[in-house]
Structures are given as structure tokens and as C-alpha cells.
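Researcher: For the annotation table, I need C-alpha cells for ABC transporter ATP-binding protein. Please keep the output clean. Sequence:
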Amino acid sequence: MNAIIVDNISKAYGNIQAVSNVSFEVREGELFGLIGPDGAGKTTLFKMLVTLLFPDQGRAVVNGKDIVKDFLQLRTQVGYMPGKFSLYQDLTIEENLDFFATVFGTSIQENYDLIKDIYVQIEPFKTRRAGKLSGGMKQKLALCCALIHKPEVLFLDEPTTGVDAVSRKEFWDMLKSLKQRGLTILVSTPYMDEAGLCDRIALMQGGKILAVDTPQDITKLFQRPLFAVKAAETFRLIQDLRNASFTHSCYAFGEYLHLALEHETTSRDIEAYLASHNHRQIDIKRIDPGIEDCFMDLISQTSVPAQS
Ligand SMILES: Nc1ncnc2c1ncn2[C@@H]1O[C@H](COP(=O)(O)OP(=O)(O)OP(=O)(O)O)[C@@H](O)[C@H]1O
């Protein structure tokens, strides 16, 4: 069964079309990722699904409830962790959690079992004000607050943005164990490397969904030969590669450029081309595409402008 059904939903702010005819479904118990850069429309979509914004058109059903007609009932059945830290900075860890429990007519004790594994990590600091917590601790507290009323569906908007690598890993481990308890989780992230941790993902850009599938099957959409290329002068390298007849696209990925080809060409031919353009310390290797390669390729096919 589907826990979330989004059917052709749109939302504009004045003349900015933040979400445009978006449709997808999330199955019960699924860990589903919404992957896209800043401004893709993820937060607007989340706000509609947790009933904080009404759509301009289209409809959506979450946990069997219509997000417009049944919005009051739905609010008690979803947990929402907003992208920006939204807890009370002047309240302590315990006071924040107690506040959210009370708002939903419950208590920390009543639902302790669901948050226990996460809460024990911050409980030693329960008298510390939220404003004085580290990024990782704030994130754990926000997750506890989103869970304290035992929601059926959990919405996490960019929970790992601005959090260190260790805390990010811990957070994804927590999501895995929540999933094992049967929760449906919709999580958004701008980090492409987190896509592989989801059961299925939707790639989003410019208010539109570009593709929905398992991370493995999304990468199969990328059919072109792909190489990672490095040389002494990166800026000149990218220009020369973009001008080459064999090039389909060329983007910077960390210290390497990812070069997608129009047609099969050997690394020796690419190297000869670069040598003829006086490049030095050339390093070329054939690679398998990742989610980010697919994302860039899908953007170029749909001609939605990429945002940095
Ligand atoms: N309240 C608002 N008024 C006007 N424009 C808005 C408002 N909120 C968002 N937008 C615009 O709508 C588009 C989608 O923004 P949204 O916040 O939904 O994207 P996002 O993928 O969540 O990105 P971010 O991580 O930056 O929040 C962007 O162009 C943004 O500038």
C-alpha cells in the first residue's frame, strides 16, 4: 500500500513556480529520498505534505488522509523535522521534548520506547538549552521532537545539512532503525551520496521531478561512456574538454572532471587530444556513473537550468 500519494501538485509564490505538476508515490515502510539542490522545491513540497501550505492545484494523500480536506487529522499522524532548526533555543532539551509531547496530548514517558535509542545519546545534557547544543545534538533533539507523538509517516527536510560527516552517518543509522520499526520516511537532501542509502529516490530540480526509482536503477539511466580526468591546469582542461568533438558533457567532481562521451572513444585518444593541447600530468580512468552524473545528465536533457 502507498503511504504517500502525490498527484500533479503545484505551488507558486507570486510568479515563482516552486513546485510544478509533481507526482510520485511512497510505499508504506519505505525510506524514500527527495534529492535536489537548494531551491529545487523540496521544502515547499514538504510543507504541503505536512499541511503547512495548501497546494494551488493537484492533490495528495498521506496515510490515507487528504492533505487539504483532512488536514487536522493528518497533523497528528505525521512527524515533521523542518530544514531550519525550529526548536526553542531558550528551552532545555527536556523542556523542548516535553513541550512537543504536550502539544500532541502525550508525554515523554508514554512514547519513550520509540525515541529511546536516540534520546539516550542526548539525555546526559537534558538540562542544557537547545541554543547551546552542537549541530549533531540539535539534529537528534529535533528528530526526537518529530517522533514524540508516534507518527505513522516521518518527513525530514534536509536533516543532515550543515552536520559533520560522523553525525551524518549516525543519523542515517537512526533512520534505518526507525524504518525497521515500520515507519514510512520521506527525507530530503542536497547530498547525492546520501541517495544510495534510500530504498527509492526522486530527483528534483526547478520544481519538477526528473526521475523516480531505486538508486541502482537511476544510475542505469546513464548510458554514455564516462571517464574521470585530471591534469595540471584544471580550468584550461575543462575548457579544452568541452570543446572536444567526442565530448557530450564535462563537469567538475571534486579533484577530477567527469567526462561523458558522445560515442565510444579510448582513454588513449582522449590523452592524445589533451597532449596536443599541451596538458601535463594527465590522469584518465574509466568510471561507473553515480547519482550525481545521472542528475546532471537528466538536467541537461530536460533543459532545466542547474543551480549551484
Ligand atoms: N516564501 C517564499 N516566497 C517566495 N519565494 C519562495 C518562498 N519560499 C521558497 N521560495 C522560492 O521557491 C523556490 C523553491 O524553494 P524551496 O525552499 O521549496 O526549495 P528547496 O529545494 O527546499 O531549497 P532550500 O534548501 O534552499 O530551501 C525557490 O526559488 C525559492 O526561492
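Researcher: And a one-line annotation?
Model: The chain is about 35% helix and 30% strand.
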